[in-house]
Design brief:
Layout: H1 3-29, H2 36-55, H3 63-86, H4 94-127, E1 134-135, E2 145-151, H5 161-171, H6 177-183, E3 193-200, H7 218-227, E4 234-235, E5 252-257, E6 271-277, E7 280-289, H8 305-308, H9 316-329, E8 336-337, H10 342-352, E9 395-397, E10 401-403
Parallel strand pairs: 2-3, 2-5, 5-7
Antiparallel strand pairs: 1-8, 3-4, 6-7, 9-10
Helix pairs in contact: 1-4, 2-3, 2-4, 3-4, 4-10
Length: 404
């Protein structure tokens, strides 16, 4: 333990013990009836309860307000009862005086800690500034090239509205207002181009094996097999026929549409990351979309969870553009994203309870498209439409707000 820590602990112990001694000594001598330490402790306890009560205005879910109110009320009762007993006449014994003083100081200190924490959380919620993305020095994809891979025979056994929408978006990518908005946003993305679109009809070797990460597992295995030539791919219906490139561009983005037989466990509606790739220190930028999109939009898709799990607000091209803009602007984890705002952290703590302060990793969805999802802190900013057409995901453009 460092000298500074030893000094801090020593001062804390001396302060705690000193307050107990002063309170007990004051009750013993009565000091002309002034009771200064008693009055200060009583006032601090009452003020602390008021501060904690103010936190209840922000607590979510409301179960935590019962816990906070109960804890604060119990501690206040402990302080007042101990002080009253301390000054009762005839005076209590010396041992009892110190026991009552220790109870009053301990309960008052606990209340002071609660009120201090509550004051910080309340202040962060009231005066927190809106989040905005900043560049963290880890690089962007300056000229991303989109490749789409529809995995599994289910994508080739009849018309698939999700596939048709994704192909239509990719075909018009260079002419789209959405791509132009990304390129003009100051992220360092100079252009977004179409690379190719294919279907791999070979089913997964291990059906039911969930996709939990892009770094390894079924998604990484499929991309390596499909793009290395081990699997024979067919072109997507309606897409410009292009062969699978022998060497992918530096800024390639591979979007894998999973088959329904591979459970999606990547998080959220869709996710992006990197796949280890020969000759690429940072890996191959990729995204995974759930197999439930294979049945999206079909007349028969009305009940099964396997095809109704994508939310209505996230049609295929919405999910595709969401991951594409985030992959381009934050491909390796140190690109464009918003640092966790204090207001969000405060609401997270109040929403998940005091235990979230201990050993929790507060995961904030602060990438440029996450910021503009409904319910996120920046989603209420001015939206600038980019024109009619296929649904696209809005994203946060510095200096403008959410556009899409």
């Amino acid at each position: 333990m460092s000298t500074l820590w030893v000094l801090a602990v020593t001062l804390a112990v001396l302060g705690f013990g000193g307050n107990i001694w002063l309170l007990a000594h004051e009750a013993d001598e009565d000091h002309g009836g002034r009771r200064m330490n008693t009055r200060v402790l009583r006032a601090l306890a009452a003020t602390s309860v008021v501060v904690v009560a103010a936190t209840l205005l922000f607590a979510r879910p409301w179960g935590w307000d019962v816990v906070l109110a109960g804890a604060a009320g119990s501690l206040l009762v402990a302080v007042l009862w101990s002080l009253r007993s301390l000054w009762r006449r005839p005076p209590p014994s010396r041992r009892r005086r110190y026991a009552l003083a220790a109870t009053a100081v301990s309960a008052g200190l606990a209340l002071l800690v609660m009120s201090g924490t509550s004051a910080v959380l309340d202040s962060a919620i009231v005066w927190g500034v809106p989040p905005h993305p900043v560049f963290h020095g880890g690089g962007v994809l300056s000229r991303p090239v989109l490749y789409q891979l529809f995995w599994g025979p289910g994508w080739d056994d009849g018309p698939r509205p999700a596939l048709a929408a994704a192909v239509a978006f990719q075909d018009g990518l260079r002419r789209s207002q959405w791509a132009a908005a990304v390129e003009a946003s100051g992220f360092g993305v100079a252009s977004i181009r179409s690379g190719g679109c294919w279907i791999d009809t070979i089913p997964p070797v291990r059906a039911g094996r969930p996709a939990t990460t892009l770094a390894d597992g079924p998604v990484a295995d499929e991309v390596h097999a499909a793009l290395s030539g081990r699997h024979a791919l067919i072109g997507c219906p309606g897409a410009n026929p292009v062969p699978v490139p022998r060497t992918l561009p530096v800024d390639a983005v591979v979007v894998v549409w999973l088959p329904p037989s591979v459970p999606y466990r990547l998080g959220g509606v869709a996710a992006h990351g990197v796949i280890p790739w020969p000759g690429r220190a940072g890996g191959l930028a990729a995204a995974g979309l759930p197999g439930s999109y294979a049945s999206w939009g079909l007349p028969a898709c009305t009940g099964p969870v396997s095809c109704t799990s994508p939310p209505p607000a996230a049609p295929p091209t919405y999910a595709l553009t969401h991951e594409l803009v985030e992959t381009a602007t934050n491909p390796y984890g140190r690109g464009w994203f918003a640092n966790t705002p204090l207001a969000w952290t405060a609401r997270y703590v109040l929403g998940h309870g005091p235990t979230s302060l201990v050993g929790a990793q507060l995961i904030y969805p602060g990438e440029v498209a996450d910021l503009c999802q409904p319910g996120q802190p920046a989603a209420t900013m001015q939206a600038v439409p980019t024109g009619p057409g296929l649904p696209v995901a809005p994203f946060f453009r510095p200096g403008t707000g959410c556009i899409g």
